[in-house]
Amino acid sequence: MKKICFISGSSPEFLGGISLYQINLINYSKQKKLDLDFTWIYPGERNRKYELRGIHCIEIKSLKYPFLKEFDFARKARKIIDREDFEIINTHANWGYCLKSYAKKKGQRIVHTYHGVTLPYMKIQFERFGIFKYLFYPLLPLFYNLEEPPIKRANKIICVSEKVKKDLEKLYGKKKNMDIIRTGIDTNNFEKILKEKARKILNLDINKICGLYSGRGGYWNKGLDRAIKLSKEIYKINKNYRLIIIGADKKKCKKYLSNNFVLYKGLIDRNELPKYYSAVNFFFSLSRYEGGAPTLALSEAVASECLAILSKDSKQEIFENGKDCLMINQYNKETAQQILKVLKNKKELNKMKKLAKNKIKELSLEKWGKNYFEVLLR
């Protein structure tokens, strides 16, 4: 039995983002009965070891302050992997900093997965401060250094999209050991449910036009403000419109949630998500920056035959505007009219959704897991 260590930023109990990514990989390994033993190391509020669904979990008490937390966690995580005999270490995102000064053991394999690139991501975050963004630019070398160790230490680097690979090459130079493996999902969990049935289960008005925004991240990067701005324009044209919002922090996003066309659902059970994807008319993916192309949530929505409305700057790569999605960069009356026009043309709408779904079938858990473990276990 091979011992594999995942190192990332959140608990296996948090079913979103990178945690869900790793859970899906573990589920694949179980389905295929791979002889693997998983340890999961992550930063938290206390030091503890426990078992969860056959996973050895190690929570490390880390500083709460942004940026300092990553460096503090890295130092403590390095001590653990120093004394443990893991045959494979799979670090994720900027938590690969723990590889700095790490002495790889004989026969050990290190794989790092870049889910995005922190430096360009942070530059986009700074944009919301307008002219004051330049005050934060002296911090940029910190982000450069944070993600550099895996470039030097890993046997193999996995990029979740072409743009992640290009961003890495721009910063750190071209590397022969980089592979692109787009993120897959268990498509069996996201089969379409009849809209009437899904709405009845969720107690949603069958006669409403419904959009969906789902995101745990900040309103700026995930584009909640964009979804609200565009929804206001749709609502002006058609008062029968509602925007369902899932996951957004109620306190931080209060000013957006107060709009009378918003149906705020907060945090929901993941088992409920497929019903929402099938119940709504379209799904907003309006991020200013995403590593994944496509992202997990977008893939899930498209697998459920939900029309995808994407921001151009999220660069979802595999989709084509007007063919299998709507790709936009304006959040105004004209775009609102365009969306409503597409919804009225049922024949063209169904064609777009089918084409998009066929692309996601190529990113099924079966195919993605096979590709990922071929790299991990090579």
Question: What report would you give on this structure?
Answer:
The protein is of the alpha/beta class and 378 residues long. It has two domains: 2-184 and 365-376, Rossmann fold, CATH 3.40.50.2000; 187-361, Rossmann fold (3-Layer(aba) Sandwich). The protein has helices at 17-31, 68-83, 118-126, 140-146, 149-153, 162-172, 195-202, 219-222, 224-237, 254-257, 273-279, 296-303, 333-344, 346-361, 365-376, and strands at 2-7, 36-44, 48-52, 55-61, 88-92, 109-114, 156-159, 178-180, 209-214, 241-246, 262-266, 282-285, 307-311, 326-328. Helix 6 (162-172) links the parallel strand 7 (156-159) and strand 8. The two termini are 15 Å apart.
Assess the beta-strand content as a share of residues. Answer: 15-25%
* Average pLDDT metric: 95
Q: H/E series, N to C? A: EHEEEHEEHHHEHEHEHHEHEHEHEEHHH
CA-CA gap between termini: 15 Å
The biggest sheet amounts to: 8 strands, mixed
Please give the radius of gyration in angstroms: 21 Å
Instruction: Return the CATH topology of the largest domain.
Output: Rossmann fold
Outline the low-pLDDT stretches.
none
**Shape descriptor:** globular
CATH class of the largest domain: Alpha Beta
